[in-house]
Amino acid sequence: MSFWEAGEIMNELIKSLKTSRTMYPRAMLALAATLYAIFTAIGPDLSNYSYAGASPHSIILPFNYKFVAASVFALDAFGLWWRIFSTKPSIIWGTIFNILTAGLWLTVTIVSTVMYNGLLAENVGEIILTLNALYILTRTDYTPADRGSA
């Protein structure tokens, strides 16, 4: 592949990112938030969890973190599913939920990176979700297709 062909491919990629709909990444984020809410709520209490090699001050979780984390993920999932299925667009609420989603996944990625003292293969999914959330945030009300749903 020549340098010229690579440039054409990059131009095509940038064009598709600017003009494509955000429904599919939004649906993946909604599904991920729903599953995180469920699994956090029914999962084990990790407030006393320490993995091998963890520093004694890595993360201190409050006793009610499961309720708080599950609630935040559930709220985010609700907002994302609402944005997908609502037929009445709302730029303000759309922006609020896009900011919440981007902040949530960015926080999850940063905290897990700090907790495990670096990026691991386990972080790949979180990084992809964070990039999708940031992409959707930058596309808020960018094109008429983005305004096709809430």
Helix-strand blueprint:
Layout: H1 3-19, H2 23-42, H3 65-85, H4 91-115, H5 124-138
Helix pairs in contact: 2-3, 2-5, 3-4, 4-5
Task: Label this structure with key terms.
150 residues; flat; 65% helix; mainly alpha; 5 helices
Describe this structure in words.
This protein is mainly alpha-helical and 150 residues long. It has one domain (22-148). It has helices at 3-19, 23-42, 65-85, 91-115, 124-138. The relative contact order is 0.16.
Average pLDDT level: 81
Characterize the overall form.
Answer: flat
Q: How many domains?
A: 1
Strand content: under 5%
Helical coverage, percent range: 55-70%
Which regions are unreliable across 5 or more consecutive residues at pLDDT < 50?
none
In total, the number of strands is: 0
Using only C-alpha atoms, the radius of gyration works out to: 18 Å
Order of H and E elements: HHHHH
Main β sheet profile: none
Number of helices: 5
Compact overview of the structure:
This protein has 150 residues and is an all-alpha fold. It has helices at 3-19, 23-42, 65-85, 91-115, 124-138.
